[in-house]
Amino acid sequence: MTVTIYDVAREAKVSMATVSRVLNGNPNVKPETRKKVKEVIKRLNYRPNAIARGLASKKTTTVGVIIPDISNLYYSSLARGLDDIAEMYNYQTIITNTDNNPEKERDSFLNLVSKQVDGIVFLGGTINDETIEDIKNSNVPVVICGTSEKDANLPSVNIDYFKAIKEVATHLLDKGAKDIYFIKALYSEQLERHIEDGLKEAYKEYDLPFKEEYTREVATHYHAGREVFDRLIDEDDNVDVLLTMSDEAAVGMLHGALDRGISFPNRLQLVSCSNTRLVHMMRPPVTSIAIPLYDIGAVGMRLLTKYMKDEPVDEPNVILPYAIEYRASTK
Predict the structure, then answer these.
(1) What are the transmembrane regions (predicted)?
(2) Is 325 inside any structural domain?
(3) Could you give the CA distance from residue 195 to residue 249 in angstroms, rounded to a whole number?
């Protein structure tokens, strides 16, 4: 039979309110009473029901995490930072994977709200309009990490993608590149716009035309990167640089080039925007914008705790520093 808080109170010969205070770390319990209650909890192997506790305290100490693709290193790196901070503040995480499916994303959000989570974090991806309306209509605090949404007015943690892409594009153009293709990877439509705008601004400063065909779309996985490379190189032999948001897609592009005897960086250059461990494993190692993924997840979770605890928030939209790590895939 399931052990209840009533059983613990009876065995410890205290009130259920006293057991509750011990469970919640309330200091207004005598040390000898606290010790006795904890011994009974251990002996009976009592596990508090988070939902039942939530009904009484209106807090469940749980946080929902919505991830587009948990197998992707970009998202798992964000999640690692978040989970470490959640543990530090004694929150449990409930992770849901949406497979980049808008309907599944909305169902995940509503399901987490129904479980009375104290807060929700979106890790990357594009949040669809219906989900944004659900967020606005709910009382659950939400923070988005590694993504941004136009006019959503949601607390967020990111880097300045416009500035980062403009910086790396300026470097490439200064080294003689002309045709820089931006391979979108379905991380976030808004972030993709920031990246494309930064790329266009770099072209503008060099008084070079940015052609519409410079922008392509691809899924985030290896085979998609391989396929888009084959199509692209067949269409345009003058490609100078491939710039992609996805490290996994970058692996596919690099392998496609090597299979055709195309060398890096003299004939072709490759830049990625995630800087997961994959960029170090490739040969040649790939130049990347070093996004502090772990820190974005960690800071996002800390920001969420402030909203959940009604603490003051000085800046709801946090911008973290980035670096550009130039490696052998570029000049």
Answers:
(1) none
(2) no
(3) 17
Q: What is the CATH number of the domain that holds 146?
A: 3.40.50.2300
Number of separate domains in the chain: 3
Q: Which two tokens stand for residue 204?
A: 């503008």
Query: 273 with 171, same domain?
Result: yes
Q: What is the pTM of this model?
A: 0.81
Distance CA 129, CA 133 (A): 6
Residue with tokens 């490439």, as numbered in its chain = 172
Residues 75 and 111 in one domain: yes
- Using alpha carbons, select from 269, 202, 280, 214 the residue that is nearest to residue 247: 280
Please give the radius of gyration of the chain, using alpha carbons only, rounded to the nearest integer.
Answer: 25
Walking along the chain (331 residues) 10 residues at a time, the average pLDDT comes out as 83 89 83 92 81 60 93 90 93 92 92 92 88 90 86 86 95 94 76 89 94 82 89 86 90 93 93 90 93 95 95 94 95 91
Same domain, 71 and 126: yes
Domain that holds residue 150: 61-159+293-320
The Cα–Cα gap between 177 and 189 comes to 26
